[in-house]
Design a protein that fits this description.
Elements (H helix, E strand, L loop, with lengths): L1 E5 L2 E5 L3 H19 L4 E4 L11 E4 L14 H5 L5 E6 L5 H15 L3 E6 L14 E5 L9 H11 L7 E8 L5 H12 L3 E2 L5 E4 L6 H19 L1
Parallel strand pairs: 5-6, 5-7, 7-8, 8-9, 8-10
Antiparallel strand pairs: 1-2, 3-4
Bound molecules: flavin mononucleotide.
Length: 228
């Protein structure tokens, strides 16, 4: 392995297939450290005359993780960040209110909850880096909104496969959007969805004790998936 260091640039050039495979694992590990705000820290000392071994550990991670070159390191080593993105569309504020109550439920489990309107999410990079995802959209004209459809195409690029998820919706009479968003997350994104289906609430009950509790419980059930 050739290693060169020039000011702020460090380059590794593998010299055989094994080194290439190991460098790929190291690369994925460092990318995951950045993604999940972890530090790769040196352990002990590196004095080649004494022992020609340089060791690093991921701060805060339990030891003895086996990493094989067949599976991307991101799948084996990265714990889910205890942070949930709650992204919603809301024209008159009802679905957004649900998002706030759901966020309270997520926070009860000790996870962080970030509530955003989909209009504030500009690229798939804004979607990455969370441990769980809950998307909400009101029903208009027996459909989800065009803005939610556009957002789901963007979220598709973030690769949410097997991440915990949930969906919610406010409506008055037919309520198609919640189950539609839920289905996309479950079948197109292959996410690990809460077993309860979408949280679909008539707008009149959102701000009642019953509505608030239903939202909080839903948030808790997604937050608990991060604690598993
Ligand atoms: C033009 C219009 C169309 C609507 N279409 C439906 C519908 O097809 N089915 C339904 O259940 N609710 C429908 N609603 C009711 C909304 O889903 C409901 O008011 C919801 O709470 C709005 O959420 P928001 O405040 O987050 O925008 C419609 C409302 C309007 C104004």
């Amino acid at each position: 392995m050739k290693i060169s260091i020039d000011k702020n640039l460090v380059e590794f050039v593998p010299e055989n297939a094994d080194e290439t495979a190991n460098l790929e694992i190291l690369w994925n590990t460092i990318v995951d450290c950045m993604k999940f705000n972890k530090k790769l820290v040196p352990i002990g000392e590196y004095i080649p005359q004494k022992r020609n071994l340089a060791r690093f550990a991921i701060e805060g991670e339990p030891g003895e993780t086996v990493i094989s070159s067949e599976t991307p390191a991101s799948e084996k080593t990265a714990p889910l960040p205890k942070k949930v993105l709650i992204a919603c569309v809301s024209r008159t504020g009802n679905t957004e209110k649900m998002a706030e109550f759901i966020a309270e439920g997520v926070r009860f489990t000790g996870a962080e909850a970030v509530v955003k309107k989909v209009s504030a999410i500009k690229s798939e990079k804004d979607v990455g880096g969370y441990g769980g995802y809950i998307f909400g959209c009101p029903t208009y004209h027996r459909d989800m909104t065009a803005s939610m459809k556009t957002f789901l195409f963007l979220a598709e690029k973030a690769g949410l496969n097997s991440k915990p998820g949930g969906a919610f919706s406010s409506y008055t009479h037919s309520g198609e959007a919640g189950p539609m968003v839920f289905d996309t997350m479950q079948y197109a994104f292959k996410m690990d969805m809460v077993g309860l289906g979408a949280l679909n609430l008539k707008e009149d009950i959102i701000r009642t004790g019953e509505g608030i509790r239903a939202c909080q419980d839903y948030g808790k059930s997604v937050g608990q998936k991060l604690a598993d």
